[in-house]
C-alpha cells in the first residue's frame, strides 16, 4: 500500500530563497506550456499539443535559459508538464460528460505552491545524510534542507514533493509499504449520519458535536480581510511590508482553520475505526448539496427576479463547507482500509423519514430538525439517530447482497 508523510522543512535564508525561485521557475514553465497549447489550438488550425511534444522541448529550454530552467531537476519539470496535461485531460473529460468545466488557467506565483519529484534519487534524495542526527532532504538547486521529522517513515520512499503553505515549507513523501495487520475484531457495526447541528450521529444514539471552526474564526478572518482590502492589488514583489503582513495574516488564519478541521476529522475517524468492524454512511453528493439556487425570473416583469432563498442557502452552504464532510469521509475510508475495516456508502434518500420500527415513510414523520415522530406507529426518537439506524440497515443489506 502507499502511505503519505508530511514534514515541516527548516530551510536557511538562502535555501528558502532558492525554494521560492524553484516554484517561480516551475510556474513559468507551466504557464509557458499552457500558452503554447492555447496558441496552437487558436492559430494553427486547432492543432492539439500533447505532453510528449512539450517534454521533448525541455532539453532546448534548459539550454536556452540555464539560469532559470537549467538549474532544476529535469524530472520535476516533466512532472510540472504532466500536471498541465492532467488538467487538460480532466477538462475534456468533463466536457464529454456534459458538464460546464472551466478551461485550464494561468497560475500566478502565489497560486503555484508545489513541485513534484517523481522518483526518490532523481533530482532529490530523502534522508540524504543518514549519519547526521538531523534528517535532511537533498533537492537539486537548493541543497540539503533540514526536516522536522516527527515520526519514522516506513517502507521505501517513492516520490517527494515540496509544498509551500504561507511562509512555511513542507516535504511530502509517498512510501510503499506492506499492508499492516488488521485491528482486532470487535464484533461491532455502526451507521453514521452526518449533519450540521451535530457533526455526526451514530446508530447507537451517540453524537459528535460540530466544532464549527470556520464560524469561530469568522470575526478574526473578517477583520483581517478588511485590513487587507485597504491595500491596492499588487504583485508579490511590489507589496509593502505592511501589505505583506496583512496577506500573511489572512493566510495564517485560513491555515489554522484547515488544520483544525483535519485534526478533528482524523480523531473522529480513528475513534470509529477502532471501535467498529463495519461502518455505513450516507453517499452524500456534497457538491450538489452546496450549489447556489437557480434564479427565478419574474414572468410579469422582464429583467427582474423573484426571491429564491439565495441568502438562506448561502448560510447553509457555508455551514456544509465548514463541517468538512468530504475530508472526513476520505480520511475514514483510508483509515478503514489500513485497519482492515469495512466502510460502505448507501443511498441517503428518506433515511431520516423512514420509521425504523414499522417502515412507514413520509415527510411528516420529521416535524422538526431534531424530532422524529412516526405518523403510523407513533415511534419517537432523535431524527439523526433514526437516520443513522436506517443507514446501518441499508449498509448491512448491501454487504450481505455483495459478499466480499
Structure explained in plain terms:
With 404 residues, the protein is an alpha+beta fold. It has two domains: 2-176, no CATH class; 189-401, no CATH class. Helices cover 42% and strands 20% of the residues. The protein has eleven helices and 16 strands. It has helices at 13-43, 51-56, 58-64, 74-96, 213-216, 218-229, 241-275, 286-289, 310-323, 325-339, 383-401, and strands spanning 2-10, 114-117, 124-126, 136-139, 143-148, 156-165, 168-176, 189-194, 198-202, 207-209, 278-282, 296-297, 305-306, 342-346, 371-373, 380-382. The chain has a seven-stranded antiparallel beta sheet with strand order 2-6-7-1-5-4-3. It has a five-stranded mixed beta sheet with strand order 10-9-8-11-14. A hairpin with a 7-residue loop joins strand 12 (296-297) and strand 13. The longest helix is centred in the middle third of the chain and has 35 residues, at 241-275. The mean pLDDT is 91.
Relevant terms:
404 residues, 2 domains, seven-stranded antiparallel beta sheet, 11 helices, 16 strands
Main sheet: strands, sense, barrel: 7 strands, antiparallel
| Morphology | globular
- Counted beta strands: 16
Strand content range: 15-25%
List SSEs in N-to-C order. Answer: EHHHHEEEEEEEEEHHHEHEEHHEEEH
Total of DSSP H or I helical runs spanning 4+ residues: 11
Helical content band: 40-55%
Look at the helices and sheets and give the structural class. alpha+beta
The overall pLDDT average reads: 91
Uncertain stretches: none
Looking across the biggest beta sheet, what order are the strands in? 2-6-7-1-5-4-3
Rg calculated over all Cα atoms = 26 Å
Question: How far is the first residue's CA from the last residue's CA?
Answer: 19 Å
**How many domains, in number, for the residues?**
2
Amino acid at each position: 500500500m502507499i502511505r503519505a508523510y508530511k514534514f515541516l522543512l527548516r530551510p536557511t535564508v538562502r535555501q528558502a530563497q532558492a525554494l521560492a525561485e524553484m516554484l517561480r521557475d516551475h510556474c513559468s514553465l507551466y504557464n509557458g506550456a499552457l500558452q503554447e497549447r492555447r496558441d496552437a489550438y487558436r492559430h494553427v488550425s486547432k492543432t492539439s499539443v500533447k505532453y510528449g511534444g512539450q517534454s521533448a522541448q525541455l532539453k532546448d529550454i534548459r539550454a536556452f535559459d540555464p539560469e532559470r530552467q537549467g538549474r532544476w531537476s529535469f524530472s520535476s519539470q516533466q512532472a510540472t508538464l504532466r500536471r498541465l496535461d492532467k488538467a487538460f485531460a480532466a477538462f475534456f473529460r468533463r466536457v464529454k460528460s456534459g458538464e460546464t468545466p472551466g478551461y485550464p488557467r494561468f497560475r500566478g506565483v502565489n497560486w503555484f505552491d508545489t513541485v513534484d519529484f517523481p522518483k526518490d534519487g532523481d533530482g532529490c534524495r530523502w534522508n540524504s545524510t543518514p549519519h547526521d542526527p538531523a534528517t535532511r532532504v537533498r533537492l537539486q538547486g537548493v541543497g540539503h534542507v533540514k526536516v522536522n521529522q516527527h515520526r519514522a517513515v516506513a517502507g521505501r520512499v517513492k516520490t517527494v514533493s515540496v509544498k509551500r503553505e504561507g511562509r512555511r515549507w513542507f516535504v511530502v513523501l509517498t512510501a510503499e509499504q506492506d499492508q499492516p495487520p488488521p485491528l482486532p475484531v470487535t464484533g461491532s457495526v455502526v451507521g453514521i449520519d452526518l449533519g450540521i447541528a451535530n457533526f455526526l450521529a451514530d446508530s447507537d444514539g451517540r453524537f459528535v458535536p460540530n466544532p464549527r471552526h470556520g464560524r469561530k474564526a469568522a470575526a478574526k478572518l473578517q477583520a483581517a480581510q478588511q485590513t487587507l482590502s485597504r491595500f491596492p492589488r499588487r504583485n508579490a514583489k511590489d507589496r509593502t511590508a505592511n501589505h505583506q503582513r496583512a496577506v500573511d495574516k489572512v493566510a495564517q488564519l485560513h491555515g489554522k482553520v484547515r488544520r483544525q478541521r483535519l485534526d478533528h476529522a482524523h480523531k473522529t475517524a480513528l475513534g470509529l475505526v477502532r471501535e467498529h468492524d463495519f461502518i455505513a454512511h450516507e453517499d452524500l453528493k456534497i457538491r450538489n448539496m452546496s450549489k447556489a439556487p437557480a434564479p427565478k425570473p419574474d414572468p410579469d416583469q422582464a429583467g427582474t427576479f423573484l426571491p429564491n432563498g439565495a441568502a438562506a442557502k448561502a448560510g447553509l452552504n457555508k455551514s456544509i463547507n465548514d463541517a468538512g464532510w468530504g475530508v472526513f469521509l476520505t480520511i475514514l475510508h483510508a483509515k478503514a482500509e489500513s485497519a482492515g475495516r469495512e466502510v460502505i456508502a448507501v443511498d441517503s434518500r428518506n433515511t431520516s423519514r423512514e420509521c425504523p420500527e414499522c417502515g412507514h415513510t413520509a415527510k411528516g414523520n420529521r416535524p422538526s430538525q431534531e424530532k422524529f415522530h412516526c405518523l403510523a406507529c407513533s415511534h419517537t426518537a432523535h431524527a439523526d439517530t433514526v437516520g443513522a439506524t436506517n443507514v446501518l440497515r441499508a449498509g448491512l443489506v448491501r454487504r450481505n447482497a455483495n459478499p466480499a
